[in-house]
């Protein structure tokens, strides 16, 4: 499978955090050549307005809407041309635009340290990257997407590798998650469970699928260069064991990678490790 690498440097705080520079960091670490990928270029999807919109509860709401339109148009174009996009965030705010650009009826394999299931009211930050899985399954925030209904059927969503904490915000977020979404938290995804879950997911359906990888699904001990580290995550070997069968399934429409914070990676060593693992699993 040949990948088409597309940069989407959307960073949801509007304050220019290092997620904005992740696509450049991953390219500098050799991603395009290592994958033998096609270069699909870069979108100008930056959020520069740090103000939380009172209506939607989302930071930079108008720029978020523009970014969703730009990302969806480009993903739709690549998909129509038979390409397999590898979209480089940025943060998880890239997901709604991507899913909007896909033909309906796909599965979503969502690997993330968090559920990303706040809405504009419950989110402690106002960052759309707190809300992306909620948004794409039609649980708010409202007023961001210019169409009704879910972008993906909640029953076709697999939420993988999250670890809800005991804090009040995390408990409230967990309670919002659509009960139709299939959940495999991090404590059931380590060691031999990783490969088993990957094989089962790959074999359990026949639909096309999108794989979204928030790098904070990894444990902060092995990948500290993220903005919202969550203890109890996966090791690199777990990630490889889980994702390899998903790629080999032949069902992938594309992949998105989010949340490398380049500010926390001054010598580029974490970007290099991410590229090593992506080259390993995506060319399997
Ligand atoms: Mn996320």
Instruction: Write the H/E string, N to C.
Output: EHHEHEHEHEHEHEHEH
CATH superfamily: Ureohydrolase domain
**N- and C-termini, Cα separation:** 9 Å
Radius of gyration over C-alpha positions, nearest whole angstrom:
17 Å
Strand arrangement across the biggest beta sheet: 2-1-3-8-7-4-5-6
Strand content: 5-15%
Describe the structure.
The chain has 284 residues and is of the alpha/beta class. The protein has one domain: 3-Layer(aba) Sandwich (Arginase, Chain A). Helices cover 32% and strands 15% of the residues. It contains nine helices and eight strands. It has helices at residues 22-28, 31-35, 61-80, 95-100, 132-136, 168-176, 192-204, 236-248, 269-282, and strands spanning 3-8, 38-42, 84-89, 107-111, 157-160, 182-184, 209-214, 252-258. It has an eight-stranded parallel beta sheet. Strand 7 (209-214), helix 8 and strand 8 (252-258) form a beta-alpha-beta unit. Helix 7 packs parallel to helix 8 (236-248) and helix 8 (236-248) packs parallel to helix 9. The longest helix is centred in the first third of the chain and has 20 residues, at 61-80. It is globular. The model has no long low-confidence stretch (mean pLDDT 97). Manganese (II) ion (MN) binds at residues 92, 112, 114, 116, 129, 214. Manganese (II) ion binds next to loops.
């Amino acid at each position: 499978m040949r990948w088409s690498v597309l940069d989407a440097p959307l960073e949801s705080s509007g304050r220019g955090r290092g997620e904005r520079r992740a696509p450049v960091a991953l390219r500098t670490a050799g991603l395009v050549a290592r994958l033998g990928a096609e270069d699909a270029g870069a979108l100008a999807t930056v959020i520069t307005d740090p103000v939380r919109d009172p209506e939607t509860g989302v930071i930079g709401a108008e720029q978020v809407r523009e970014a969703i339109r730009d990302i969806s148009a480009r993903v739709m174009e690549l998909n129509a041309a038979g390409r397999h996009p590898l979209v480089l965030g940025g943060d998880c705010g890239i997901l709604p635009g991507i899913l909007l650009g896909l033909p309906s009826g796909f599965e979503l394999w969502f690997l993330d340290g968090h559920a990303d299931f706040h809405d504009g009211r419950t989110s402690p930050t106002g960052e759309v990257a707190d809300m992306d899985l909620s948004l794409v399954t039609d649980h708010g925030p409202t007023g961001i997407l210019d169409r009704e209904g879910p972008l993906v059927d909640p029953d076709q969503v697999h939420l993988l590798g999250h670890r809800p904490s005991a804090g009040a915000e995390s408990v409230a977020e967990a309670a919002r998650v659509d009960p139709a979404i299939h959940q495999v938290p991090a404590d059931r995804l380590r060691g031999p469970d990783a490969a088993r879950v990957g094989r089962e997911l790959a074999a359990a359906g026949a639909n096309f699928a999108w794989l979204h990888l928030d790098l904070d699904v990894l444990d902060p001990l092995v990948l500290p260069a993220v903005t919202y580290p969550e203890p109890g995550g996966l090791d690199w070997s777990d990630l490889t064991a889980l994702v390899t069968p998903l790629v080999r399934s032949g069902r992938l429409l594309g992949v998105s990678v989010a949340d490398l914070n380049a500010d926390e990676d001054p010598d580029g060593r974490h970007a290099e490790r991410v590229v090593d693992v992506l080259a390993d699993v995506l060319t399997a």
